[in-house]
Amino acid sequence: MREMVIVGAAETKFGRSESSYRELAVEAGRKAMEDAGVDPGRIESLVLGSFSPGTFVKQEHVAPLVASELGLDHVPSTRTENACASGATAVMGGLMQIGAGMHDVVLVVGVEKMTATPTGEATSILAEAADWESESKAGLTFPGVYALMARAYMHRYGKDRSILDAVAVKAHGNGAGNPYAQFQKPITVEDVRGSLMIADPLTLYDCSPISDGAAAIVLASKDVAGEFKRSGIPFLGWGQASDALALHERDEITALPAAQRAGKRAYDMAGVGPQDVSFAEVHDCFTIAEIIATEDLGFFEPGTGGDAAVSGRTGRDGPIPINPSGGLKAKGHPVGASGVGQIVESVFQLRGEAEGRQVDGVEYALTHNVGGSGATCVVTILGKGE
Amino acid sequence: MREMVIVGAAETKFGRSESSYRELAVEAGRKAMEDAGVDPGRIESLVLGSFSPGTFVKQEHVAPLVASELGLDHVPSTRTENACASGATAVMGGLMQIGAGMHDVVLVVGVEKMTATPTGEATSILAEAADWESESKAGLTFPGVYALMARAYMHRYGKDRSILDAVAVKAHGNGAGNPYAQFQKPITVEDVRGSLMIADPLTLYDCSPISDGAAAIVLASKDVAGEFKRSGIPFLGWGQASDALALHERDEITALPAAQRAGKRAYDMAGVGPQDVSFAEVHDCFTIAEIIATEDLGFFEPGTGGDAAVSGRTGRDGPIPINPSGGLKAKGHPVGASGVGQIVESVFQLRGEAEGRQVDGVEYALTHNVGGSGATCVVTILGKGE
């Protein structure tokens, strides 16, 4: 396949925004094109990742809407949806278009506008990413799904909630250094434990927030990378895998088999292993999800990811920093934007431009974007470029 | 790019179904794999086209759901959404994955379950494919949008509604020969004119129905086409283009510029012209849409597509049969399935297996799938194969 690079990257601040869905998408898309030094006329295709604009803002068919608002006259535009992995799935779509030789320069935008919807209703909308017939219809929303996973994990490995506390405190500490983060204030273990119980054992600070936001990258074939202002950040490997939507249909719930498979494919393609990864942006929709992710991706043995967080090994100065951006937990989780935002953060880190949260000596970045409770997973590995 | 062929094709009957969303998708997907003589284990990826399952059946994240129900264990699965062109957009996604060399065999499914939703509510959901801020919020639903286009067309070219009558009568006549069609009964001009006025000048028989249904194809690289039971139907060309969602943002509304551009790309890629096309399945969501489509695709000069329908030139025995399947109008319009269904019908015709509606001497088939009032258009051209 042709080699592919990221020549532009940008995002809006995540959080509660006054901007509309289309304004968020346009802000990120325009800034990514500016970052690349590229005119809208050079963009050959738009792929847009978004979860549920039909329910959140009563607007489907968002790809051509955003394309026309961005002045991308008449290029093919396509939306992808894979729940909370809609963003990384859109990136996969862009990679395929360039890989096939169909296009040379593709804009990928991830976006969601969620805070205009009351929180309870938003939680119901999010539950549509679980299996309606066996989960959501019975009242099982995502905090409950991940609480089941947390309970199973803690039981299986004999852990208490201190492993969750460690992840939450680290996330908010990192978010404090990220100007794009929804939450930019450090918290303590007492804050986590004292916060509202959402779904036992998960408290409010174990859960990622409802957010607005957008993120965008300009993807290009390496053949044309010389046209752009910024040197390209190479896509070294990627993997996507699926699983059943419903927890009860899986063999185990203390790991995400789809993440393991997607990770293996990405590592194999990139020719690197977990030991080579400088830092990772993983899908910590809940604190337990980050712990499981670090095990699925091979950074730690099963049952030891929580201890690693407690001992500071996943801190920004640790051997394998996890979510230096603050992650979904503190940076925020505007669903369709999250996976693209992980890649944008990785580009900033690989360029050495992640002010306030820069990881030292970055060579390889890994992103891990999950849909539902693990029915979709996309892993990408980026390198430093020239 | 690698050459690509369709090695399996199938669809459910369109119409009001007792089957659920997932049952419809599984039926079409399974039948397409059976048609190809392929085991689920050989499928490397699923792309699923669906418009708004989140609102129609409270289920997003449908791609891995359908993948797991079909026994496609763990393959990457992705949903695409581009309003009523969601189906053909999914086909584009599959083509890119094979074109990039990422996969050799991809299952594409289009599906929608609409009839469990009350008609008024379904019309509101469909209106989310128009521009919410400038159209749908003000009460403009799609019958209204296309009525504006019909009025503009009739005024500009000095036509009366007999051109619409001709399209409706032909559609239902063709549907009568199609066992997959929602409506299998011929109608008369009097039926059309006597039916309920929906949005002047469009009566009930000018409008495609609310439908359930699914359609699926197995796409393969030509390199591996020998593995399958059926000889492959080649994809000779395709084109996708976009436009602004809102009618008032376009230069004209008596043609669809996106359809013209998508058609030109497809013709150029296939190396054929309108004169070579044996028949076309076009997006007749309303009778006026078929007339405009036949002009946008170069079969007739602007302003003459309606006359061509009246004079029988688009009939099954005419020089350029349009919608021998009955089209969206009579075959039905389960949104996400429609674009895939056009391709399935084309495969049946190219194989000479379109019993009851077979067009004579088919060499090239063209499909034309539109999202919204023309903000997305995908055109494909298929050949006869070996």
Structure description:
The structure is a homodimer of 386-residue chains. Chain A is built from 13 helices and eleven strands. By secondary structure, chain A is of the alpha/beta class. Chain A has a domain at 4-118 and 210-227: Peroxisomal Thiolase, Chain A, domain 1 (3-Layer(aba) Sandwich), CATH 3.40.47.10. In chain A, the strands form two sheets. The first copy, chain A, has a nine-stranded mixed sheet with strand order 3-2-4-7-1-8-11-10-9, with helices on both faces. In chain A, strands 5-6 form a two-stranded antiparallel ribbon. In chain A, helix 7 (162-175) packs across helix 10 (287-296). The longest helix of chain A is centred in the C-terminal third of the chain and has 17 residues, at 335-351. Chains A and B meet through helix 3, strand 3, helix 4, strand 8 and helix 9 of A and helix 3, strand 3, helix 4, strand 8 and helix 9 of B.
Task: Give a summary of the structure in a few sentences.
Chain A is an alpha/beta fold. Chain A is 36% helix and 18% strand. Chains A and B meet through helix 3, strand 3, helix 4, strand 8 and helix 9 of A and helix 3, strand 3, helix 4, strand 8 and helix 9 of B.
How are the SSEs ordered, and which strands pair?
2 copies of one chain form a homodimer.
Chain A: E1 4-11, H1 21-36, E2 45-49, H2 53-56, H3 62-69, E3 77-81, H4 86-99, E4 105-113, H5 119-126, H6 142-157, H7 162-175, H8 189-194, E5 197-199, E6 202-203, E7 212-221, E8 233-242, H9 257-270, E9 279-281, H10 287-296, H11 305-310, H12 327-331, H13 335-351, E10 365-371, E11 376-382
